[in-house]
Amino acid sequence: MFSCDKDNPVESSLCDESIEVELWGECYNIETTTILDLSYSNLIGDLPSSIGNLENLTWLVLYGNQLTGSIPTEIGNLTSLFKLNLGNNQLTGSIPIEIGNLTSLFELSLVSNQLTGQIPTEIGNLSSLSKLFLQNNNLSGNIPIEICELNIIQIGINNNQLCPSYPSCISQVDIDPQDTTECP
Predict the structure, then answer these.
(1) 42 Cβ partners below 8 Å, 6+ apart?
(2) Nearest to 14 by CA among 24, 23, 29, 27
(3) Is the preceding peptide bond at 165 cis, omega within 30 degrees of 0?
(4) How far apart are CA 67 and CA 41, in angstroms?
(5) How many Cα atoms are found within 13 Å in the side-chain-facing hemisphere of 158?
(6) Backbone torsion region of residue 182, taken as left when φ is above 0, otherwise alpha when ψ lies between -120 and 50, otherwise beta
(7) pLDDT (0 to 100) of residue 9
(8) Alpha-carbon distance 22 to 172, whole Å?
(9) What is the widest separation between alpha-carbon atoms in the chain?
């Protein structure tokens, strides 16, 4: 198994595009890269759509960088993901509905970004999800009732703009506070 983290980067200057993906100046093998933890690596710019080519990833952690732009829809290609943490960046736009393709996902963390729009109902497809962290964004609308069909043991969705009424399966402690000034 090949693993890459910030303390042990792949040393390569040219990528073979048939078997590798270049991300932030490094090459990652499409077949063998299963863990990509680049948290606190001072990454800047957009999250490249080519990340979706690393279809064998089980662990994608890009926490604590300066990533901007939207989450690419190609993230939905990473169907082997167990953990996805894009928290504490500057990501904008909505959570792509393709997130619902990640049925092996155990933990999803998108905390402390600038995400907008509604939590997609496709989140209900994440049958393995146990930890969901979406707090400190600008998410709006209603919390999809599909969340209640999951076996979530930890959830954080506070500090957004989510409107009542809230699903009874979620504790008020995990919801409050919300900016409801734009709610009907």
Answers:
(1) 65, 66
(2) 27
(3) yes
(4) 11
(5) 10
(6) alpha
(7) 47
(8) 43
(9) 54
Query: Which residues, listed in sequence order, are joined to residue 162 by a DSSP beta bridge?
Result: 141
CA gap 149, 18 in Å, rounded:
40
- 8 C-beta neighbours (distance < 10 Å), count: 9
- H/E segment holding residue 173: helix 172-175
Q: Show me where the domains of the chain are located.
A: 34-175
Residue given tokens 């043991």 in the structure block: 153
For residue 117, is pLDDT > 90?
yes
Q: Can you give the length of the chain in residues?
A: 184
Q: Say whether pLDDT at 12 is over 50.
A: no
26 burial (CB, 10 Å; 0-12 / 13-18 / 19+) is middle
Classify domain 34-175 at the CATH class level.
alpha beta
- Structure tokens given for 146: 């599909």
| Cα angle 156-161-165, degrees, rounded to a multiple of 5 | 80
Tokens of 95: 């959570």
Q: Which position has the token pair 């299963």? A: 34
Handedness of CA 74, 76, 80, 84 (dihedral sign): positive
The SS3 of residue 33 is strand
Examine the pLDDT at 4 and tell me if it is beyond 60: no
Q: Is 33 left (phi over 0), alpha (psi -120 to 50) or beta?
A: beta
